[in-house]
């Protein structure tokens, strides 16, 4: 199950208390103070892990705590520190803390092995051996360990991919991903077949490849959350380029493209600045006599309205897919 959102509570460990103790040995009836320090509480630590793909572990387990530090002991022995609580997240996870109804970004996990302390454990208290002075050689006080508090976190996963597939429902995005990569998304002849994002590695040659993300279809009003738009659109925010897929049977491809671009811009204006390519899909659904004039009409319209070139492909018929791979890879190299 692909889970890309969760809320959890965390709490770092409390620090151990300092110890009040005096040295008691044979022939030394009035030894000096020897109370040790308390141990430090464990931290809550986030680590990026490429072996983790979703936030499923945090959907059902809602509370995470590090262990407390132990109190100090006599003979100047410090208490053991608490164990850290390590939380492993998929790359692309954004972590927010909720405080007073405000949402503050704590971390953005983007690198494998990246380690970020989300909450520090409490400090260990000082034992009475720390407070001995020439005028107070037998201090009878120590300090308590630091106390921690619960934190409420919001976890949001945004997939990291080179190419994001954008289109209306049933535009052929999942079919294209399944043909170009080893990914096996659900494919059927009805809208909203894809209900969760899917990643696939597209190999251009033995040493050249790129990562493509298929998200569920966009509908008008997606930027306002319509059709779960917010949950889907965030997954293409991190992509290097966008691939707009438009069914050749669409009544007005120009208007369809304009709507898709508008939805992305209204959700995040930066996405309008990404490199992109317009692809006309499902050319196999037209006969040879119908295809040529239809493509000519669409090509002319896109040049006139957007000054953009379009590519025509058929995933089912395996038409022009190699050209598409090399074209996309070239755009990615230029953008880098």
What structural keywords apply?
Rossmann fold; six-stranded mixed sheet; rod-shaped; five-stranded mixed sheet; alpha/beta; 336 residues; Spo0b-associated Gtp-binding Protein, Chain: A; 2 domains; single chain
Describe, in plain words, how this protein is organized in 3D.
This protein is an alpha/beta fold. The chain has two domains: 5-157, GTP1/OBG domain (Spo0b-associated Gtp-binding Protein, Chain: A, Distorted Sandwich), CATH 2.70.210; 163-335, Rossmann fold (3-Layer(aba) Sandwich), CATH 3.40.50. Helices cover 20% and strands 24% of the residues. It is built from six helices and 14 strands. The strands form three sheets. Strands 10-11-9-12-13-14 form a six-stranded mixed beta sheet, with helices on both faces. A hairpin with a 2-residue loop joins strand 10 and strand 11 (208-214). The longest helix is centred in the last third of the chain and has 19 residues, at 288-306. It is rod-shaped, with a radius of gyration of 30 Å. The protein starts with a strand and ends with a helix. Mean pLDDT is 87; it is low at 185-194 and 222-230.
């Amino acid at each position: 199950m692909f889970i890309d959102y969760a809320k959890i509570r965390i709490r770092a460990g409390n620090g151990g208390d300092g110890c009040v103790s005096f040295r008691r040995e044979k022939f030394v009836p009035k030894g000096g103070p020897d109370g040790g320090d308390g141990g430090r509480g464990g931290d809550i630590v986030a680590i990026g892990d490429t072996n983790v793909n979703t936030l499923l572990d945090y959907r059902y387990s809602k509370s995470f705590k590090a262990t407390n530090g132990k109190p100090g002991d006599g003979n100047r022995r410090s208490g053991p520190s608490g164990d850290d609580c390590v939380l492993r997240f998929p790359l692309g996870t954004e972590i927010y803390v909720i405080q007073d109804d405000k949402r503050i970004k704590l971390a953005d996990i983007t690198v494998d092995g990246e380690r970020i302390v989300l909450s520090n454990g409490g400090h260990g208290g000082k034992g009475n051996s720390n407070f001995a002075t020439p005028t107070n050689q037998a201090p009878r006080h120590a300090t308590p360990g630091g106390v921690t508090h619960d934190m409420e976190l919001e976890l949001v996963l945004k997939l990291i991919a080179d190419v994001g597939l954008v289109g209306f429902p049933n535009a052929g995005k999942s079919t294209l991903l399944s043909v170009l990569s080893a990914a096996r998304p659900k494919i059927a002849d009805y809208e909203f077949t894809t209900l969760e994002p899917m990643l696939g590695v597209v190999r251009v040659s033995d040493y050249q490849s790129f990562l493509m993300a298929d998200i569920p279809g966009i509908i008008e009003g997606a930027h306002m959350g319509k059709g779960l738009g917010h949950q889907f659109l965030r997954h293409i925010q991190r992509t290097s380029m966008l691939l707009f897929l438009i069914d050749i049977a669409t009544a007005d491809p120009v208007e369809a493209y304009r709507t898709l671009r508008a939805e992305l811009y209204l959700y995040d204006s930066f996405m309008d600045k990404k490199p992109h390519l317009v692809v006309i899909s499902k050319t196999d659904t037209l006969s040879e006599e119908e295809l040529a004039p239809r493509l000519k009409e669409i090509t002319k319209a896109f040049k006139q309205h957007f000054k953009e070139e379009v590519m025509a492909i058929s995933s089912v018929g395996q038409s022009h897919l190699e050209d598409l791979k090399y074209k996309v890879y070239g755009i990615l190299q230029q953008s880098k």
